[in-house]
Design brief:
Helix content: 25-40%
Shape: globular
Mean pLDDT: 82
Order of helices and strands: EEEEEHHEHHHEHHEHEHHHHEEEEEHHE
Largest sheet: 6 strands, antiparallel
Number of strands: 15
Low-confidence stretches: 8-55
Amino acid sequence: MRSPHLEGRCHTHRDGHGIHSGHLPPLRRGERHHRLFGGLFLRLPVCREGVALYAMCKVKVAIDTSTLRSDARLSSGPMEALARFAEKGHVEILIPYVVAKEFTTKPSSKLESLAELRVTLKNLKQNVPSDLHAVVSEFETRIAGEFDALEAAAKQRFNEWQARTEAIIVQPAADCAAKVMEEYFAGAPPFGSVKARTDIPDAFIVEAILDLGSKDPLFAVAEDGRVAEALKKAPEITVFKSIRKLLGSDEFAEALADIGVHIEAEYEQANLEKVVTEFLRDRVRFNRAMEDDICRLLTGKTLTYRNPHYDDKDSPDELYVDSVEEVSEWTSDGTSHNLGEGVILVEFEAELQISVDDPMGGTYYDEEGHPDSSREVKVSGAVSLKLAPADLMQHPMNSSGAQLLAAATVSIDELDDISLVPRSY
């Protein structure tokens, strides 16, 4: 069945055995058949000069702010795979104007915290003795400088990514504001309640993507729950929570197949299996780099837990992760996912010792009676293996799994689950 998530009318013709080389599908006015590798035929529109518009057949993907912020460096395995698909001309990335502005001004929770700190320091300056004003002002200036530097770096990173992927910034339609105000007073998603002003930017994002969906079917990636809920009401839009889930879906693979792009070719699959097997065999040499990635992803996060000695009516305590002290155990059952364009994900689990700030839990002592702020957590996620697509397409006899892995970039870009291990009291 033809996937609807395409730009232009682009059809494949094959039977149950794969490629069909017999009768071709009927042509409509202004179309002609275009033969691809292996006998695959596409029925493509023809421009006035008689040239098939194959280059215009693209899978459309719209992205919201929460998705970009979850990968502020725009370098995770899934993001890299999507960028490579875009570079090849297979995917058209659509970024609502509000998403672009939100990301380049506040690309991560760290920048948001810095912005809040600047406001706090201004208020502090008004409520301290005058002899401390210089100290507060100096600190404020330093923080402001750091904020500006981070914001400038975010803008540069986004601009480079946009230039590389040719992502399109979508301006709001003329009637967008009126539609947003209707949702604002109704309290409909993505608004959390009636007249929830903080949700207005999300509403503009939703309306921009809905407008795109009214013209052409597309995929949308939205980690924000209310944004996703609002988009799912449009039948032309297929919504995914993350780029990883999009790229690993049957719907995305079918959409690519409809434009003659097949994620797993014969040689590629054999090489993928080799490189995953080699990674699992020799994973220990990547442990240090992967531990650094986990430290980066966990440090600064807030976890919740309930002390069994507390009343059930009490709210859970919050633990601020100061640092990761040790990664004590790595496990993997070998499950892997080919996202395409040379990017592979290998699932893993790990047990960690972390140091936390527990302001409500009181002091905890170890077996020797020393104060102990450490906690155990279990995490799960996926390791990204990023290889050159050309390396995977070569004959499997030309290189070993070790040679392929040596040329790969290995990283952990996100954690799927973080679970605090209860300890005895």
